[in-house]
Each structure stands twice: as C-alpha cells, then as structure tokens.
Automatic annotation (TrEMBL):
It comes from Periophthalmus magnuspinnatus. Belongs to the ammonium transporter (TC 2.A.49) family. Rh subfamily. InterPro entries: Ammonium/urea_transptr, NH4_transpt_AmtB-like_dom, RhesusRHD. This is Ammonium transporter AmtB-like domain-containing protein. GO terms for cellular component: plasma membrane.
Amino acid sequence: MAPQYAPSMRSRLAPILLLVQIIFIALFACYFEIDSQKRARDGTAFNTFYPEFQDVNVMVILGFGFLGTFLVRYGFSSTGFNLLVAVMAVQWALILNGLESWYYNGKIVINLRSFVYAEMCAVPALISIGTVLGKMNPVHLILIAIFEVSGFVLNVWLLHIITKTPLFNGIMLLHIYGAFFGLMLTWLLYRQGSEQPFEKEKISRNSGVFSMLGTLFLWMFWPSFNSVLVDNYPHGRKLEAVCSTYLSLAVSAATAAAVSVASSPKGKLNLVQIQSSILAGGVAIGVAMPVVHKPWEAMTLGFLAAVLSTTGYKYLKSHMVVVFQCHDTCSILSTHGLPGLLGWMAQFLLLKDFDDHTTAIRFAVFHITSLFITLTILILCINHSSGKYCFSLFWRPPQDRKCFDDQAFWEASVDKVMYLLFNTRVVHDIFFPPFLCSFPTL
C-alpha cells in the first residue's frame, strides 16, 4: 500500500528553514553587534566564562541529543533534529532577549552570557519535543520550538518586570514550563490507538547504551548548568550551587537505582526508568536553588525527587495515555515535570531570606500563577480543532506505521548504518582493540 504522504520534505522543510534563516540573517545584520571588549559589561572575563558556556553547550547538543537514541530505529533523527531545533531556537532566543536593548539603544550587543541565556531559553523546547519524539517531522519541531521559546521568554519577562524576580529564578522554571508544554502538545496531537505501543517504539540493548551516554553527559555537566547564571554575591554562592547540585544528583542516582530494583517484579534495574530518574535531583535543585544553602537540604531534595520520578515513570506513563490521552514518549513528566514541581514546592518550606513572610508568599503565588497564565494563553491560542488541523494535515506528519523510523526522513541506508553503529562487536573493537583485550575473563 502506498504511503498517504510523499516521503519528500522538499516542499515543507526547505522553504521554512531558508525563509526563517534569511530573516534571522537580516535582523542580525541590522541590529546586532558583538561585545568585543576584553571584559564583558557584567565583569566576567572571557577565559573565566567560556568553560561554563562549553558545559552548557555540551548538555544542549550532546546530552539531549543522545538521550533520545533509546528508540532502536530513531538514532539519526534524535540527534540530528535535536541539533536543528537547538540552533534555530537559540537564534530566536537571542533576538527576543535583545528586544529591550534594541528598544532603548537601537542595537543589541551580544556576548557569551547572551548565548548562555539563549541556550537556556531553548532548553524548554528540547524538553517538550521529548514528549512527541518519533511522532512529528522536523517542520513541526521547528515551529513548536519557535512558538515555545516566545512563550517562555514572555513568561520570564513578566516575572522579572512585575514581581522583580531575578532572571535566574525565572529561567530555572524551564523544567516545569517545558514538561507541561510538552504534555499539552502531546494531548493536542494525540493519535488514536496510542494505548498500544507503536510498531517501532522499541528499545534495544545497543541503542540503550548510546542513550545512557546522553544521560551521563547531562549528569556530568548539570552542576555547570545550574550554577552558570548564579551571581557570586555573597562570595561563594556559585560554589554553593555547584556542590548542592552534585550532592543532589549523587543521591538521586543511588535512590533511583534502589527504587527501580524494589519496584521490579524480578528485582532488576530498568534502564529507561533509571535514565528518567537519576537526573531528577538536578532538576529539583535547579528550581529550588535560591533557597537551598545546606548540604543536607540538597541531598534530601535529591532523594525525594528520585523517589517521585521513579514511581512516576513506573505508574504514571501508561495512565497518562488512557486517562488524559497524553502519549509521553520520553517520560518527560517524570523526568522534568514532577521533580520541577517538587523543587518549586521546596521554596515554600525553605524560605529563609525574607523577613516579611507576606511578601514571600505573595511572590511565590504570583510566580506560579504567571507560569500557568502563560500556559493557559497557549491553550487558548491553539484550540484543539484548528491546532490539530494545522499540525496534522498541512505539514504532513508521518503515518503511524512510519513513526519512530529514520527512513521516513533520512536518505542513507538506515538499517545497515544503524546496525554498524549499534553493533556491539564493532563498538567493542573500536574502544577496546584486541591487543588490549587478550587477558582472560571470568
């Protein structure tokens, strides 16, 4: 039977990319300039800030890119589409973040800190596309990213202008924003019959190894991600953020392993469950960073986040499909949503820097209210019928039997390449040559 839609994306992807990129080039040519001073305006030296910028870049490109390769036939698309969405979202975030500077000065001056802000504004889009991973084409993902980055920047601006919330506090809501945006997205684009797993929605032993590599990248560089925008005043606050994040991640990794084994009928570890949960501590501590000052607080938060995330993956994912019609491919609710909400709730329990408790409570209530107002506006702007028509018909999403398959988008002989890429013997020979592996094994 011939496919309903032609496999070529020439009439959709190429015009969108070329048009948007030409517009971006024109805007950058007219209004942008690079801050070429030896020291940035905020007093941060290039040599000091560049390593942190690299760490965030590794997380955005390699961490989130490899994280989705657990799908056995979707490795090319997971890494390639992640890069495509990231670069488009970062350029758009640079433009949006510079609107205020353009309004007052007529020019937008960018530096490394500007790029870090932009990459962190792009992260919610990378989180959200995890909920629809394998079910959308790259045109969908780019449109989703542009729309979501706009809403997120608007949300941060509202918090900063109206409640005087520091930019770091508003930006670290990216986990909550990205997770619930993704859930609304997968509800909007729900496919009938998703109660049963898709034909190619599978994980293999070898693809799981590459996916675990993405998790390890995220785990290693998460302390930089949480501390890169923290002001080092009072002195030592940035070190405090790094140490708290590491402790929270360490505890969440150990706790996730324990809960995974305890919840398994056979008493074994579940790879995808572990991947979803060992990062929960980093998510929770990132949201609660302004009020976490003691090591035990960070460790307790990591423990609770791992328990919540692991049990959420075990019991919530299947129920979300049946009850709410939300087919969450990468368990984003368990990985980012629930730990993010836990970190936000921890702000109520650990508030110590406010002498006036009434002001603190008003701040927290308005903080979360502004977020949900933004999400509500999103739902109203894209109602169920018109949004589904736009995404499902005009942009030609893959058929159900073509979901989670690289062959729908990539020209290469995917099966042979993926076999060579994920073949255990090939990978083993590359990293462990025969002359290094001549010792007897147990």
